[in-house]
Here is the input.
Amino acid sequence: MNNTETNSSFETSNLKMWLSIIILAIATFTIVTAELAPIGLLTPMAEGLQQSKSMIGLTVTFYAWIGAISALLSSAFLGNLPKKALLITLMFILLISNILCAMATDYYLFVAARVIGALSHGAFWAMIGALAMSLVPARHVGLATSIVFGGVSAASVFGIPIANVIGANLSWQMAFWIISALSIFSLLGILLLVPNIKSQHAIGISVLKNVIRNPVLSKIYIATLLAITAHFSAFTFIEPYLHASKAISDNFISIALFTFGIAGLMGNFITGIFIDRYLKPLILLSVAMVAVSLLILGIFSSSLNQTAIFALIIFWGISVSGIFVGFQTWVLRIAQEDAFPASAIYVAIFNSAIGTGALFGAWIMANFDFTVLMSFSGTAIAISLFMISIIPSEINDAPSQLVRDNL
Here is the structure.
């Protein structure tokens, strides 16, 4: 084989490697968008399924909690299965769930369809970070994981506005049909692009226990629980918050949510630039910015004009991307050879926080108002700053050599 053929083969292999990372990011975007879509569809779904907005919000809660349990069980009992076949199976289950959601004619049929999706969601997300690490050379691990986790971040801040626009202009059912189409695209992409990956052994419950006992990881997990719970307490009800605001007309609500999404994509790009060198400072700044934004939205809600609300939404969107990508990257950097179980625990905590946040938000909305909701969320996120600040910074500021054979 001459040099030209060798270079061509290398370039083809390199291209397929990065295409596999991109398709995993798209798949991750799809599964998280499916999880959070009801947040952007609260009003039309409440009307269509003849339920309160709080009841629709609770579908996000139990979806997240089932996903959390699924993540832990998958790391303990599915670690010895071929990862490509498992990914395809999980994406197929998610596809069925989204189709059933789109076809649901009453609330309880919709709930049943969501349960099916939640079972695949947690297992898929739990393995995705460690899987990305296994697909690329060690020198590209940081970039690969940032791309894949960018799918989570993009879905968290951009998928919801997309769902809102579709629901407002077409129907909430159409939003789930489009998510179903994304599921098909992701499934085919995984089938064609992701290589077969051999698994060496099951993870086991004992490894999960060892990860939890790690003092640094345990602090990161607690900070994650506080920050994500607080964020989703507020974010689950951002659409009705904007509806209730006298400063923004109904015609501008979709624009405001898209502004949040675009800001989130900007934040993801900024995070990717600085995360390798300034991981902990980036997380601290991101958490502080979210806390300040929410406190202002809560305390001064009655006096904010449209420009101020849009500005705060932009700050919130940019900074929350740093939280999403930052905490996950931090966990993988600390865990190293225990990346799969550490990621599974993180996903379980993250999903539990989504569910808990939605539940707290629903309770606050049932008993108080938006001022209390935003103020509570901002205060809780501010408290997580303390937990982050006491984690030794020397552990975080140098990229680690991640061990990638634990799959």
